[in-house]
Amino acid sequence: MAQPLGEFELIAALREKLPLAGPRLRLGSGDDAAVTVPEGATATSVDALVEGVHFRLEDGFSLADVGAKALATALSDLAAMGAAPGEAYVALGVPPDLGEAELLALADGLAEVAAATGTAVAGGDVSRSPVLSLAVTVVGHAPRPELLVSRGGARPGDLLVVTGELGGAAAGLLLLERPELGAGVGEETAERLRHRQLRPTPRLRAGAALAAAGATAMIDLSDGLAGDAAHVAAQSQAALRIDAAAVPLAKGLAEVAAAAGRDPLELAASGGEDYELLAAIPAQRLTEAATRIGEAAETSLTPIGEVGEGKGAEIRLPGGGTLRTRGFDQLGPQR
Amino acid sequence: MAQPLGEFELIAALREKLPLAGPRLRLGSGDDAAVTVPEGATATSVDALVEGVHFRLEDGFSLADVGAKALATALSDLAAMGAAPGEAYVALGVPPDLGEAELLALADGLAEVAAATGTAVAGGDVSRSPVLSLAVTVVGHAPRPELLVSRGGARPGDLLVVTGELGGAAAGLLLLERPELGAGVGEETAERLRHRQLRPTPRLRAGAALAAAGATAMIDLSDGLAGDAAHVAAQSQAALRIDAAAVPLAKGLAEVAAAAGRDPLELAASGGEDYELLAAIPAQRLTEAATRIGEAAETSLTPIGEVGEGKGAEIRLPGGGTLRTRGFDQLGPQR
Questions:
Q1: What is the ipTM of this complex?
Q2: In sequence order, which residues have a C-beta less than 8 Å from that of residue A189 and are 6 or more positions away?
Q3: Cβ separation of A127 and B91 shorter than 8 Å?
Q4: Domain boundaries, chain A
Q5: Nearest to A298 by CA among A228, A185, A227, A200
Q6: Contact residues on chain B for A77, CB-CB shorter than 8 A
Q7: pTM for the full model?
Q8: What's the confidence (pLDDT) of residue A322?
Q9: B33 and chain A: CB distance < 8 Å anywhere?
């Protein structure tokens, strides 16, 4: 059996796998700190994935999936600002039973998303931990701070738009936990749904397109449409009204939800982890936004409601009444 | 019993405790990402503290100590670059048995160090975790990238200097684990040694002074003098020769080491966690460095050796021979 690598050898091996190039990076991993020369404004966010809380390896997450998802979900916050991805810093907690091959597989997943998005992994920290955990800090860039889109700028009269389709990640999780729920959908659809859960795509090009088109507020759908819309409403001091009938549902969601005895709309609204973007945009900018999203060729754009006077977010059901759900609470019961 | 706070209420409560003001901060915690407008260069580093690995609450760490130490040790990396502290981002892993009062105490510790150093806590993430963990990313600033000091610039002929006294943190840990070892030192000294372990001070002013005085390489002593000197040697492709007799030892270290049957020099060289700075500096700049350190009024400065041709780091013992020790391996056996 190979001699286990020590901390410094392991870090060196991990570092070799990870892209370090970045236009703003002057000094990368391996010193006390990375040195960058940002121009304009930076957007910085940190997100953690913890084994047993955010993922379970026994559900079918590979180590590469975990690495990829940790970076992708962190980058999703930059997408929601309309920022261009720049650098990532990864604090890795390694349980004693995790071997080097597995750690390197995790680095492969990180590297895949880093390469696909043009993110430099500029620094990190490795320590022992009872469970696998990754805290990923990402830094994005924009020429000027006013080009970055906060959650707080939605104005009455703005339209609400959402990228892509919702509920896929929740359906994918159901399929990972209970494969028999996929009997009613084809294998290709089932695989696509699982992929939504395992390998979310940060909507960086769509976020940049929406920011350029004049989005007034934006958020990524990590906790679920209902909860995340409520955040925008609170920060914007406005009311968000969403038409349930307009919400684009992931293909196969209806069948999987039916097999699980769940409401597909409830899964789409509160399942979370779709990492699509919800944006408010003045009505006269909708065409430009749609054009730019089309050019970005990453995902679709669907109007789903509007911003009004008042407060809170509601999802109006087709038959009357509203759906009120709570988003995924990170401190709630573990999975 | 009070209803436990949900994630969002807890984050709001934590946020209230933490200083958010910062000259470069345009949008702080509570959005998808924080927005800053850096000028010049940034230095960014991430450091994690994990319960059972880096600290044990049963050793006498209060929650405030843990919060303070997590931020202080991350900032120590900025000190080692000569960067001015700017913003911090905290990924907090919260075990189920940790109450709100304890979390708020932890935030108090974080806030204390943030206020003392002028650091804005600009963002964070809270999630469930089997043990308490904090991954802290810090961003520091300098007008130009060439003003930041890497580990790689030490040149043959440079002097080696160290700030403060070494071995205090290791002696403090021994006292926390076995209070009876303090019988030979006064309570005031014992308290100071424990404080070195519980509440390290990032040498930000000293680091800035050394950078301004022309330090060619710098590192903070987190793993221990021997291991950290080896990092500088490797990055600088030079040999670091340290005179053991010149190394400033913490007051009380000798007595505590004797009571524990340990070699004080070995504790000072490999105990780690002193978070003093080791720097290489051209001989003709030593006086200026000493003057600037004196003006910074934070700590002392001691010449302890020199840089030569070759590679590796060695600590030469007074009676001949060298001390070769390995630094603290983050992936080694748990405490």
A1: 0.91
A2: A251, A252
A3: no
A4: 7-147, 159-323
A5: A200
A6: 32-33
A7: 0.93
A8: 87
A9: yes
